[in-house]
Design a protein that fits this description.
The protein has about 200 residues and is an alpha/beta fold. Helices cover about 35% and strands about 15% of the residues. The chain has 7 helices and 6 strands, in the order E-E-H-H-H-E-H-E-H-E-H-E-H. Helix 2 packs across helix 3 and helix 4 packs across helix 5.
């Protein structure tokens, strides 16, 4: 399919052919959901920890009479019901990551790109470079393209534009190899350079 290509100043720069197998799919929410859950679970640190009964320093000697107190016959101060005792079934250090086949992850990225194109939120530019890469100039250029909450993907991030765009809230720039389903879906607009389109098609073929 054909798609228009524009410049950062909103001028026209021709058109580009998009691969239907990558940008022309009918988006499936179930596949996108599985991939987002996979990504968010994988990035959890899982370093939460609470001391349990066997890790607390406390006396294990019987501290009360067997009879006559009217209470339970306790024999260990590390029991969970006592102040300073161990936590019963507390959080442990573990990995939250889940498995997802590589084929499903690749398919989810295709569906994410297709979803952005289907809803009219995909913008293709000729290149993501500016001579005067100052934050104000970059903000003005992005405002012409109505980019306030967008993800910009390029083959390689231009140093000047990358530093300037970093100061703008809602704007993220990542290389082609960092393109992922979660970042694409959480932004209102997806901006791809011509080089990024070629890189994504080569990556997903």
């Amino acid at each position: 399919m054909k798609a228009d290509v524009i410049k950062l100043d909103a001028g026209k720069a021709g058109s580009i052919d998009l691969n239907d197998e990558i940008f022309g799919l009918e988006p499936r929410k179930d596949i996108l959901h599985r991939c987002v859950v996979y990504q968010l679970a994988k990035r959890q640190q899982g370093t939460h920890k609470a001391k349990e009964r066997g890790e607390v320093t406390a006396t294990s000697k019987k501290f009360g009479n067997q009879k006559g107190s009217g209470g339970a016959r306790h024999g260990n101060r590390a029991a969970p019901q006592f102040r300073g005792g161990g936590k019963a079934h507390g959080p442990r250090v573990r990995s939250h990551s889940i498995d997802l086949p590589k084929k499903v992850r690749r398919l989810a990225l295709k569906h994410a790109l297709s979803a952005k194109l289907a809803e009219g939120s995909l913008i293709i530019i000729d290149e993501a470079k500016m001579k005067d890469a100052k934050t104000k100039a970059v903000a003005d250029a992005f405002s012409k393209l109505s980019l306030s909450n967008a993800l910009i993907v390029d083959s390689e991030i231009d140093d000047g534009l990358g530093l300037a765009a970093r100061n703008l809230p809602g704007i993220d720039m990542i290389p082609v190899m960092g393109a992922n389903v979660y970042d694409i879906l959480r932004k209102e607009k997806l901006v791809l350079t011509k080089a990024a389109v070629e890189g994504l098609e080569a990556r997903l073929k």
